[in-house]
Amino acid sequence: MTLTALKRGLALIAVCFYLSGCAHNSVFVNYPSQIAPIKQGLNSNTPLKGASQLEPAISGNDGLLYAQEAGRIAQIAGDFDASKQYYQQAITRYLTFDDEALISASQLGSTASSFLFNDNVIPYRGPGYERILLHQYQALNYLFSGDPQGALVEVRRSNELQSLEQEKYQKSLKSIQSLANGSVDSEVARLEEASGNLSSSFLNAYSYYVTGLLHEILGEPNDAFIDYRKAAQIAPRNPFVQQDIVRLANQLKMPQAQEFEQRFGQPVFAGKHQGQVVIIIEKAFVPIKQSFTVPFTIDGNIQTAALATYPSRMPAQSNVTINGLSNPMTAATIANIDALAITALKEDLPAALARQAARVYAKSEIASSITSNSKRGRNELDIGSIAIQLFNVVSEQADRRSWLTLPRQAQIARQYADSGEYTLNLDNTNSTQITVEPGRTTLIWAIDTGNYLRFYSILI
To answer: Per UniProt, which keywords does this protein have (predicted)?
Structure first.
């Protein structure tokens, strides 16, 4: 018995290793397990270590994702200047992808190897909702670093992307051929239910609210009103957004002001010696992608492919109670980021299924080419087939990459208060000192990572 078939099978595998690049850790080691220790560090008093650990990976295949993670870690730690630099690297990566008109040789290699390995070989480009949040968070970096004009540039880009990403997705639907597969259809239906039947991953009330808030704070009430209305269309039951719409409609003397009053109640305005207190609360982390198996039948043989999915929707987060101002408040949810993530995956499943089907077929063709040579002996054919089957099992990994340091949920609250010093208390467990001045806004950003609740505030 010769080992020609085995050698050829192993040679193919070696070529695939070369094309994929061994630096792409997510090819064989799933991304959530790589980032888990970094996330744990956010519940310690030295969270910035995680950002420095990710720096070497920013130059790699998944550099965009690692730059987003590093920027978010630095932001949670309160190092807004460092976060700004990391985020800018991610923004530059997105722009590079936008500008690519031709497929480079390196991308061709990644695409070719993805047919034999898995989608983790393809450079990470991020779903639309991540890119929108990237610019939103960069705007907050500029604001908390004392650069309001830089913040305005980012919020305008965030708004523009909400429209562009929606248009891009609608166009992509025309180019995706639907493949009938019961397992995938069932998973899409389950994801839709898990996301709360969210219509789109690109329309984000949290981003619209933050952009509206910054427009208002920085003296652009007309733009603020437009963004608040968009936020209200996505989160229609949020009482704070409703009040913002009524207040600005009256302030701008809009003809619809009376209609808004009938729908949302009378507007509340600041007193002569009052300032406004706005609180943004981020809770927990987005869920981690899981994997499920999709069976295929090719030439009478059953093949399997791995696709990413999310677990069923987790229990709802409780609304945070806020004490310390003249009146106690209960924060209201402005966005469930986990629902955006689930919806984005649901939107991508048809394309992912098409790639997986092509990959399964390619692997089947390789196996067939080994067994089709009648000159080989039976044992040799068995060894070659076994080599390919083993390679198929090892290489077939779902693409579980996503921005995992994002919050699971965002809540907001807003109230006018007399000028002075206050101690704000959240859920009767965590507190922070704030200052309120007449005619100004005190913005508090509370980030809850589980065991740590960090406060950042700015007087604008």
So the answer is: Signal, TPR repeat
The phi, psi pair for 303, rounded to 5°, reads: -115, 160
Which carries the bigger pLDDT value, residue 127 or residue 184?
127
- Residue (of 139, 121, 78) closest to 456 by Cα position: 78
pLDDT of 380 above 70: no
Q: What residue ranges do the domains of the chain occupy?
A: 4-459
CA distance 53 to 427: 34
pLDDT in tens, 163-193: 787 777 666 555 454 555 666 677 777 777 7
Instruction: Check if the beta carbon of residue 435 is closer than 8 Å to that of residue 421.
Output: yes
Domain 4-459 has CATH 1.25.40.10: yes
How many angstroms from the chain centroid is the CA of residue 360? 28
Q: Specify the long-range contacts of residues 356-361, CB closer than 8 Å, at least 24 apart.
A: 356/119, 356/294, 356/305, 356/306, 356/307, 357/179, 357/296, 357/305, 358/115, 359/114, 359/115, 359/116, 359/118, 359/305, 360/296, 360/298, 360/303, 360/304, 360/305, 361/298
CA distance 13 to 271: 72
The SS3 call for residue 416 is: strand
Q: Find the distance separating the first CA and the last CA of the chain, reported in whole Å.
A: 80
